[in-house]
Amino acid sequence: MKTTICLIAGATLLASAAGANAEIRFGIMNEAYPPFFTKDASGNWVGWEIDLMNAVCSEMKETCSVVDMSWDGLIPGLQSKKFDVIWSSMSITDERKKTVAFTNKYYNTPSKLIGAQDGKTGTAVEDLAGKTIGIQVSTIQADYYKKYYASVSSEKTYATLDEAFQDLAVGRIDYVFGDSIPLMSFLQTDFGKGCCEDKGNVKDDPQVLGQGIGGGLRQEDTELLARLNTAIAAVRANGKYAEISKKYFDFDPYGE
To answer: Which positions carry the signal peptide feature in this UniProt record (predicted)?
Structure first.
């Protein structure tokens, strides 16, 4: 009996110690979103957002891991505690703030349209009249479409941008609407160069398009939120953010 009690007590102490330095789990979309995250030949997640996550975790002196799931499962996954932080190019919006506590932004990117090379250039409402626009589900661009373009054009939704790019390339849709960096990355591929071009950035609307990209946490996790904000500021200040960014961009993705 004494041995059993000792074993239980020891296990309790070990569990407490593990909880004090528990692994922080970062949730990302389970589809490639270059250059922010994609899988390498070994099946490991790599990319700008992964490198930044590692730098932030190093700053906090924490062990971190990646949990991937569908884009529209990220907020439910956070709330059900399948992971601790959404770290998946999620825009900070007032609507999302109702359920998610966001860190300070760690990058910002305008929204843009790309289309076929022989199509009309421009992003004004009249430019898109009668056109079909491809948009990833549950994104800020889907909300923007409803506000500005739904009255004159039609929408086709996709689980991933890759699916939208494929339909654009074969002419099933006229445009893809999304964040500028992944869209421009697609245009730089052989596939993208052969079919499509930049049609321009849309008019900004911070109320819909948000205030930049941040990490998303459960609203009660205030201590982790504060630590992440401190770490994000530190990697900006110590030059690590710029070092990582130069591997992927010829500009500062932090934005204004």
So the answer is: 1-22
